[in-house]
Amino acid sequence: MQPKPDTLTLSQTPSVWHDPTVLRAAKQIYLAYFQIHAQRMRRPLGVAVDRETYRGLLLFARRPVLLPGEAFIPFEQIEAEIY
Questions:
Q1: What is the mean pLDDT of residues 23-44?
Q2: N or C: which end of the chain has fewer CB atoms below 10 A?
Q3: Could you give phi then psi for residue 74, rounded to 5 degrees?
Q4: How far is residue 83 from each of residues 23, 32, 39, 77, 78, measured CA to CA in Å?
Q5: pLDDT value of position 83
Q6: Any idea what the Cα angle at residue 53 is, between residues 50 and 56, rounded to 5°?
Q7: How many CB atoms lie within 10 A of CB 37?
Q8: Closest CA to 74 of 19, 20, 17
Q9: Taking the mean position of all CA atoms in its chain, how far away is CA 40?
Q10: In sequence order, which residues have a C-beta less than 8 Å from that of residue 54 and are 6 or more positions away?
Q11: Alpha-carbon distance 32 to 57, whole Å?
């Protein structure tokens, strides 16, 4: 099934994750998850962060759905900033 023309896939989402505050929030969300779940850690696809509240969730599904106002930060970007 073809995506609707007005539907964005993750590879087409704007590069809003260059915002340092959103990136910092994504790193903090990931590190909090890692500290709690280090023993049974799964590698996330990325983090969805609300651009206004900076709250977010780790995403593990292949095709996550973002809400309006959320930014997707790929795990590779978070990983590059941590190490």
A1: 90
A2: N
A3: -65, 145
A4: 14, 16, 20, 10, 9
A5: 57
A6: 45
A7: 11
A8: 17
A9: 20
A10: 21, 22, 25
A11: 11
CA distances to 4, 16, 65, 66 from 1, rounded to whole Å, are 9, 27, 17, 20
Distance of CA 13 to the CA centre of its chain: 11
> What pLDDT does 4 receive?
46
Beta-bridge partner residues of 70: 50
String of DSSP letters for 26-68: HHHHHHHHHHHSSTT----SEEEEETTT--EEEE-SSS--PPT
Length of the chain (residues): 83
pLDDT tens digits for 35-77?
Answer: 888 788 788 999 999 999 999 999 998 888 899 999 999 999 9
Give residue 74's identity as a one-letter amino acid code.
P
Beta carbons within 8 Å of 77's beta carbon, 6+ residues apart: 17, 23, 26, 46
